[in-house]
Amino acid sequence: MFMNFKKNLAAVTIVLVVMSTFIMFNLTTFAATTEPKPVDLKILVSPSSILADNSSYRCIFVQLVDAKGNLARAVQETTIDLSSSAPGIGIVDQTTTIPKNVTFASANFTSTYLPGTTAITATAPNYATVSSTLTTIGPYPYKTTVYGFPSVLPADGGIYSAVMVQLQDISGSPARAPNNVNVSLFSSNSKVGSVNSSITILQGQTYAIANFTSTTDSGTTDITALGHGYASTQQTFETTTLTSSTALQLKIFEGPPQVLADNNVYRQFAVELQNSTGCPTTRSSDTIVTIASADNTIATTDTEITIPAGSTYALANLYTTYRAGAVAITAATNGLKIDQQILTTVGYTPSKLAVFCTPSNLPADNQTYPAVQVQLQDDQGRPARNPDSGTIVKLFSSDLAVGDVLSPITIPLGQTQATGNFTLTNTPGATAITAIASNYTTGQDDITTYFIDYRPMLATLTVNPEHVNGANGVQVSAYITGDGDPVIGAQVSFASDISGAFSAIQSGNGFYNSTFTTPNLSQTAICTITVNATKTQWLDCAGTAQITVAPAVTPTSTPTETPVPTATPTSSPTATSSPTPAPSAGPNSADTTTPLSTSTANGVAPIQLCVKDSNGNSLSGTSVTSTARPAGAPILSAFTNETGFVAFQNVTAGSYTFQIFKDGYQLVSQTINATRQESTLTILLSNDNSARNNQNTTTSPFLIPAIVAVIIIVAIAASILLVRRRWNIKFSPSS
After folding, report:
1. Are 357 and 416 in a shared domain?
2. DSSP state, 618?
């Protein structure tokens, strides 16, 4: 008995597996995994030119692209290693991370005071290395130049902070020290005076000051400055013996004639008391000197300095702004001739706006990205500092359907650029971003957005019937959905692994229907039918189902098996009307002429349908296909004629269920009993919009029956197991 139980259990298990497999074959739903994946890195440097000012700029961007060079989202958090080929020019963040499902990440580049060009390289596991160049802009230090302030000193053995050594580029503009620059100093005539043996121009500074020690001998001496790797220059200093001459004039010694327009403080010039011959002299009381700048937007000075009694000069400070230019400095006091000198501050004067949309390619995903950078530039395209308290820049997007930009943005005082946020829509396209600000030339750049987020589609394929003789028709229906909604306008194709033919596909509200005419086989075979669906911006999907195809039934010679067509009398209106043929997708023909024949065959009246819309208008070209029918009856399939009628002749008595479908209208199923009584049934189809809400809540019309079938099978198997167990317990020898 136990062996019989095992055999029965094995049989039940086989039945369960076979039936479950059959159900799943006839209700297969899956989506293809063809979403683009990132395969390459792309590095962007924008702006590509920044100041060599030891500041950090967000200007490095690393993007992910697919095999076609299109944007791609990271499938996992991706760490990018970054490096700079010339650390002396600047360094980049060592790493940046592209989060999962994001297309790019940014990094900061920190410049030094040394201008030049460096290559920025990005690497990551499983990606090829990419690189791009970045240039830093500024005066390149070339020489050390000596200035005296003042250069005429008393021969009194005093110590004077009067030797200034400035680092300059080849044109004479001040340049910042890229690192600490040691300068050796020499005096050509030690009898006149000596100088510190060396001084250091600190990193980021343009100058340093050394002491000059005079002797009591009058004369001149040349002070030479030597810096390793820099050209050298000389300056002549003169010492004179002080006399009791009356001071008659003021003399301004400005040191270097050029300083940086960098909003800094410079110990820049000396005001000296001189006699009529230009020699330094003293006064017995303090001398208060008023100093003024002719243009405070360029530079200002100490408004007042004091030359102490017994001293020949005093030093004054210069306060630069970010606005470069030449300015007159005037020194005056009562009873003395005034003096005026021209001093120049140097820098890049902004004249225009440059817009950099980086990355310029973005996903159309309704997100906000800090992708719009506006840089101030001079007329040669070099980055320039904002000399004003805050420049307000208004931004405009030419196509709001693509995206909009935050406006306005402000470039702060002393900065070269500012960043604006760009908010995208879900509509791909291109838009021009325009930047406008008072007193500056307008700038513009483009942003292009792409739809890269492919939504998944699901294909549910059903066939009816599952068993068919060769040379007969099978109704094939694919239901394509996405996010639970029917997908309209997909490109759908059917294929079988054996020969056969598919009729033209009729579609509507996510359903794609065709009739498959099976081949005439010599022996029974399992046929697998496959549906493939594609649509722009959607992932491809596919589904399969199986049918059993038996050899075609050969008609016998029995007269009753071969019905003779009934001739239509020529005097009947049906014979003289003009028929409108419609394609047929089944072995049973339908009369679609107008009016329709009502003659009977085999004692059964034809099945006649009239299909109209909700307004009562006839619907021609509507697909009418039987999905259930009496045993042994063939599939009925045809299209309505121009007046909305379709008729099926030579039908078998019994119940038929028809699927009635027309593109743009709700799919309808209707059951009809074929009897001797002649009748015409009118079917009303609602347009697709009225059915959409109901369809949205249904992932598949065949899913619930399949689930119920599986549950029933499992329940039967469980019941058999329970009964067998009780039987064994009841009749076991031990009981």
Report:
1. yes
2. B
* More confident position, 623 or 31: 623
Q: Residue 251: is its pLDDT beyond 70?
A: yes
- Pair 332, 367 in one domain: no
Q: Is residue 673 part of a domain?
A: yes
Q: Are residues 312 and 342 in the same domain?
A: yes
Domain match, 115 and 181 both: no
The model carries a pTM of 0.64
Under 8 Å between Cβ of 572 and 581: no
584/683 same-domain check: yes
CA distance 37 to 44: 20
Number of structural domains found in the chain:
5
Using DSSP's 3-state secondary structure scheme, residue 12 falls into: helix
Of 138, 160, 182, which residue constitutes the final position of a domain? 138
Helix or strand or coil: residue 530? strand
pLDDT tens-digit readout, 83-113: 999 999 999 999 999 999 999 999 999 999 9
Helix, strand or coil, per DSSP, at residue 518: coil
d(CA 673, CA 168): 104
Residue 12 lies in a domain: no
Of 297, 328, 347, which closes a domain?
347
- Phi then psi for 304, rounded to 5 degrees? -155, 135
The letter for the amino acid at 669 is S
The range of the structural domain enclosing residue 76 comes to 38-138
How does DSSP classify residue 488? Answer: P
Peptide bond into 465 cis (omega under 30): yes
- The three-point CA angle 508-547-639 to 5° equals 35
- Print the SS3 string covering 285-340: CCEEEEEEECCCCCEEECCEEEECCCCCEEEEEEEECCCCEEEEEEEECCCCECEE
How crowded is residue 499: how many other Cβ atoms within 10 Å of its Cβ?
Answer: 11
Distances from the Cα of 293 to the Cαs of 126, 253, 323, 330, 363, in angstroms?
A: 62, 15, 14, 7, 54
CATH of the domain at 163: 2.60.40.10
- Within a domain: residue 590? yes
Judge whether 48 and 134 are in contact, CB under 8 Å. yes
pLDDT given for residue 699 in this prediction: 39
Residue 75 lies in a domain: yes
Q: Which residues contact 693 (CB under 8 A, 6 or more apart)?
A: none
Whether 333 and 402 share a structural domain: no
E strands, 382-442, where? 390-397, 403-405, 409-412, 417-424, 429-436
> Alpha helices, DSSP H only, in 241-293?
none
Does 436 lie in the same domain as 370? yes
> Tokens representing 435?
């930047």
